Amino acid sequence: MAAALPFREDLNTSESRASARRERKRRVAARMFAIAHALDGMSRGEAARPAGMDRQALRDAVVRYNAEGVAVLSGRPPPGRPEWLSEGELARLKAMVLVGRDPKRQGCEERTLPILCEVIAERFAKMLHPASLSRIVRRSGLLTQKTRPRHPQSDAKAQAAFQKRGCAKP
């Protein structure tokens, strides 16, 4: 027979169940209920079954919970490729985009994705495709839309007159 699970001293079943009911994430709530069942004296298998886990998964959850608390019950981040830009690089890129360019020093005013890719290549020595940068920019909360271009010699009075009368001449 398996040895009894050791639990933290500050944990009791009523508090565990109450916090599981308040929990928004279903997986975390199920793990908390399984821990509460195990605290009540159920075996690992009996306590884990209603939560949809096996007894080894319950044991692992209890060990992690004892070490670090409720925060680790939500699970580990999913594996995958690391982000292309670090947090610091992303913050610097965001600041560059929000500040804008100086047309006298840097030429054109617009910040298109291909231009930003060139800036990233120069400053961070990382090559990105504009489609990849588009996803990064959207995740960081910036818009990828450009403003409508305005001709420097456009006449505001003529535009207003055209909008009032259409194509008719005065």
From TrEMBL:
Annotated Winged helix-turn helix domain residues: 112-164
Residue span of region Disordered: 1-23, 143-170
Ranges in coiled-coil conformation: none
Top-rank taxon: Bacteria
Name of this chain's protein: Winged helix-turn-helix domain-containing protein
